[in-house]
Write a structure and sequence with these properties.
This protein has five helices and 20 strands. It is mostly beta strands and about 400 residues long. It folds into three domains: about 110 residues, no CATH class; about 150 residues, Jelly Rolls, CATH 2.60.120; about 140 residues, Jelly Rolls, CATH 2.60.120. Strand 15 and strand 16 form a beta hairpin. The protein is globular, with a radius of gyration of 23 Å. The protein starts with a helix and ends with a strand.
Length: about 400
């Protein structure tokens, strides 16, 4: 009897994925769910997976990406935390893609195809109530290194406004690596005296005053629509500072990045906030394989945590957030064992997590400044905080709301 049930169980597991999958019946639904968000015209990926004709030439590449877990890109250790934007393939999905590639990528019957997935064209947050933009296109050269470039854009708010959603839309994704749209409140000394609307390149390292965060952009990380009843207060007289990281690709280009804003239709029930647990005083020794840097943030009042965004540069190796509660208990909120600078993920918690007042969020990062790191610009040099990718940063961003 045991043998019978053992055979039955094995048969059930093997039959979970189709034995000879076809594109239209078995593969296309997976691509729609996990891949087409980036693999379509105008988005981050260099090839489109909307059709069989567009996907078939990349069957071997898909197989390799599945085996190596390179795609879909995601960094979170599944042992800690649940995230609503986790694109990870299930075992059945992996087996289906591998079997399809090994079978020489058959098309199957076009009638088996699901209806095409409908994508939001334009703004992911919906039609903005307000759009602000760089006053003129920025010229990106064909080659060379571009310092982080900032643009101060006035909002002209004469009274405090509640913002339910905001989105950064780059004008040219081929040369925009990532963008952070900061809020500079009136009276801030940060970038004091800098011209409005003009590119600001040289910034003193000491000019690191406090700032808020409005929105951001990174490849493959779409901005989500606002949550009803939840909004961010933006003070009258505030300005948006676009921090642009441009990269050259062999062709001269221009970019005109915009920010869309949707206002709350009524005062919110939940007020959005955020934190940045950073250490800017570190020195990573030359050749160090796993240099540790820590930072922390203490909840000033009871908050509900919604998202976590670790940020490092090319030497970033791993990153972890730990919540240390007033009771003495602790919990790993997020562990990214293999940090990847090319994918600046925001990890959105599946359910907001209550953090009592006094909870300490402790961030621990390790940096690989050794020759073993193939992305390391110079393993013979010590590394300090700086804007450029050959320098380093250590920031544990977080989002929350309060009632």
């Amino acid at each position: 009897m045991r043998l019978f049930f053992g055979i039955l169980l094995a048969s059930t597991l093997l039959s979970a994925a189709p034995q000879r999958p076809t594109f239209y019946k078995d593969v296309l639904p997976i691509l729609q769910s996990k891949c087409q968000g980036c693999h379509r015209p105008g988005e981050a990926a260099p090839m489109s997976f909307l059709s069989y004709e567009g996907t078939r030439p990349f069957a071997s590449a898909i197989r390799e990406a599945v085996v190596t877990k390179k795609m879909p890109p995601w960094g979170a250790d599944p042992a800690h935390g649940k995230f609503s934007n986790d694109p990870t393939l299930t075992e059945d999905e992996k087996n289906t893609l591998l079997a399809w590639a090994d079978a020489k990528a058959p098309a199957g019957n076009r009638k088996d195809a699901p209806a095409p997935r409908e994508f939001i064209e334009g703004w992911n947050i919906g039609q903005p109530d307000m759009v602000i933009a760089m006053p003129k296109p920025y010229e990106v050269p064909a080659s060379g290194t571009i310092e982080y470039t900032r643009f101060i854009l006035p909002l002209h708010f004469t009274e405090d406004r509640w913002v339910s959603a905001a989105e950064v839309r780059p004008g040219n994704r081929a040369v925009v690596h990532h963008v952070i749209a900061y809020l500079r409140e009136p009276g801030s000394s940060w970038l004091k005296g800098a011209p409005l609307g003009e590119p600001i390149v040289k910034v003193a390292k000491s000019d690191a005053g406090p700032r808020g965060s409005l929105a951001g952009y990174a490849p493959g990380v779409p901005q989500r629509p606002g949550v009803p009843g939840r909004a961010l207060r933006v003070k009258a007289g505030s300005e948006v500072v676009l921090e642009m990281h441009y990269t050259t690709n062999g062709k001269a280009a221009t970019d005109l990045t915009k920010v869309g804003i949707i206002f709350a239709k009524e005062p919110p029930v939940e007020i959005t906030g955020g934190f940045a647990a950073a250490d800017s005083k570190f020195v990573i020794p030359a050749g160090a394989e796993a240099h540790e840097v820590k930072s922390k943030w203490t909840a000033p009042r009871e908050v509900k945590l919604t998202a976590l965004t670790p940020h490092m540069h090319l030497r970033g190796k791993d990153f972890q957030y730990v919540a240390k509660y007033p009771t003495g208990e602790s919990e790993v909120l997020l562990h990214v064992p293999k940090y990847d600078f090319n994918w600046q993920h925001t990890y959105v918690l599946a359910q907001p997590k209550l953090l009592p007042a006094g909870t300490v969020i402790e961030c621990t990062a390790h940096f690989d400044n050794s020759p073993n790191n193939k992305f390391n610009p110079d393993p013979k040099a010590p590394v300090r905080w700086g804007d450029q990718s050959w320098e380093e940063m250590m920031i544990g961003f977080g989002g929350y709301f309060t009632n």
